[in-house]
Amino acid sequence: MKPQPKPGAWTFFRQWLKNPLRVAAVAPSSAELAAAMIAELPDDARRVIELGGGTGAITRALLDAGIRDEDLLVLELNEELHAHLQVRFPRVPVLLGDARMLPSLAREQGYLGGGPADAVVSGLGLLTMPHPLQRDIIAAAFQCLRPDGVFVQFTYGPAAPVADAVARQLSLRVRRGEFVLRNVPPATVYVYSRESVP
Known about the structure:
InterPro entries: Methyltransf_25, SAM-dependent_MTases_sf
Low-confidence stretches: 1-7, 12-26
GO molecular function, one term: methyltransferase activity
Structural class: alpha/beta
Keywords: Methyltransferase, Transferase
Distance between the termini: 60 Å
Strand content: 15-25%
Protein name: Methyltransferase domain-containing protein
Number of strands: 7
Largest sheet: 7 strands, mixed
Order of helices and strands: HHEHEHEHEHEHEE
Radius of gyration: 16 Å
Strand order of the largest sheet: 3-2-1-4-5-7-6
Helix content: 25-40%
Shape: globular
Number of helices: 7
């Protein structure tokens, strides 16, 4: 008997078929990629924002790593994936919205009342976005981060996910993290932080 795809994987693939540019991959992130993302969090990270929650592979890994439900904020633009995440993680704040609006969405939800996030992890397809859109999303994320917080992003292919010009404009430094072969497609983790911390 042929194995059936998991419900989350099927939901994700269906959304990719509808809009392959907005849903950047054909399959959810692997456990290995999620682990590589979490390995880049600050040692004292307690409060995390996830951009592009998808089917929840990284969300699940963050919770398993000890991030409390109320200290995790997930943002998803796709309505069907948002609904899936709300059902899968009923105690986690899961917002439907555009990552460029993250500061106002996080404030309205009450998340930033507990202080800035220690890290933002992103599954967004930044590499395919125009530079102004990249800049707006990254700038919005850093508005929600503590001064020495990190923005952790994975990408496919050899190029860094954020254009050099955008990183320079926002005064960010970048470090390449782990290459994860066991993902579809293989992915590389990148970590962005502010050039100077006040």
